[in-house]
Amino acid sequence: MRYIEPHAHMVSRTTDDYERMALAGCQVICEPAFWAGFDRSSAQGFYDYFRQLTGFEPARAARFGIRHFAWMCINPKEAEDTGLAREVLELLPEFLAKPNVLGVGEIGLNKNSRNELAILHAHLELAEKKDQMILIHTPHLEDKLKGTRLTLDALREHPGIRPERVIVDHVEEHTIRLVLDAGCWAGMTLYPHSKCSAARAVDMMETCGMDRLWMNSACDWGVSDPLAVPRALQEMRRRGFPPEVITRMAWDNPCQFLSQSPKFAVES
Amino acid sequence: MNKREILDEYFIDSRSKLLEVASFLDRLSRAEGASDYRMASLASALNLLNDDQPEKTRRILECFSDPTNEPVDAAPGKGASGAWPGFNGKAG
Fold first, then answer.
1. Nearest to A114 among B61, B69, B71 (CB)
2. Distances from the Cα of B37 to the Cα of A221, B32, B77, angstroms
3. A72: pLDDT strictly greater than 60
4. Model pLDDT for residues B29-88, shown as the tens digit of each residue
């Protein structure tokens, strides 16, 4: 079955992973800008990373018949240094214009600090001004609930942003309804230990419905699984979901959200 | 899936995960030194597992969460510990 991986950090993965994902049916990968596991020392470091996301990775994916799209930002883990963050923000318009860039992301909060919130607002202003779609990261573990609330409050302060063009990612059982009730899309991240399992993701589908919902692996440099989405589709089969419903989660839903960008020219 | 089918599919896996928690608690009790705030949240979460209310997953996640609303003045590093240090022992 073909599927879309709507959130993967392929710069951290090997070319073998691209091949394995293609063999599993992956035809599209979307890659938000994120933290490299260490803090970059200058805006130039981000500039080179953005070049990698808009040049090298699309070419690497294309070798396996996979379309590669990206999202641009300075991630919240490096937003505490607001001076550096504002330098990086100045780089973004050049890259938002690239043909594979779908919008601003993954922005948001990490430890729910005032500086992180200020940089989140700066990204939201940019997205509003440039009419960009938005992909939002929500914090980890004990910080997620508060961070999700603060993020949704921040979005409400930007009336030019339409919630149906925003995906709030890494939802779990205590945040998914907050996000859906705000009119945004919700992303369930299949990531060991710190996010949700395939079984819990399918539980959330059963209890919250499948409107405005997608699944992703967010595979990165940590212990994570580039094949987490097809494994979750297998969990749906295990529970007896019919093929058309599985296709909805594998392809139709992410395609519906992403197609709001005219750059996402992928067969529906 | 009906209850019987869910038990057939998931019981052994859940039993295994419960034994991992039990083994962790045994390991902790054998060890020297003081515990910390994470155990208060975990103890409350374990109580929620055995009550008769729905949405245990959501309520356990809330038990581990920071319930406050104000942003913090500065980020205290980047990582998360999995439990909120200010937890008062009252779980939903």
1. B71
2. 29, 16, 18
3. yes
4. 999 999 999 999 999 999 999 999 999 999 999 999 999 999 999 999 999 999 999 997
DSSP single-letter state for residue B72 = B
- Among candidate residues A3, A59, A1, A51, the one with its CA nearest the CA of residue A26: A3
Is the full-model pTM beyond 0.95? Answer: yes
Model confidence pLDDT, tens digit, residues A120-146: 999 999 999 999 999 999 999 999 999
Complex prediction ipTM: 0.96
- How far from A126 is each of A130, A132, A151, A222, CA to CA, in Å? 6, 8, 16, 30
Task: Mark out chain A residues that contact chain B at CB-CB < 8 A.
Answer: 35, 77, 80, 110-117, 139-146, 149-150, 172-174, 194, 199-200, 203, 238-240
Q: Tell me the pLDDT tens digit for each residue of A180-213.
A: 999 999 999 999 999 999 999 999 999 999 999 9
Are B69 and A143 inside 8 Å of each other by CB? Answer: no
Q: How far apart are the first and last CA of chain A?
A: 14
> Edge-to-edge strand order for the sheet containing A213-216?
A3-5, A26-32, A67-72, A101-108, A133-137, A166-168, A185-189, A213-216
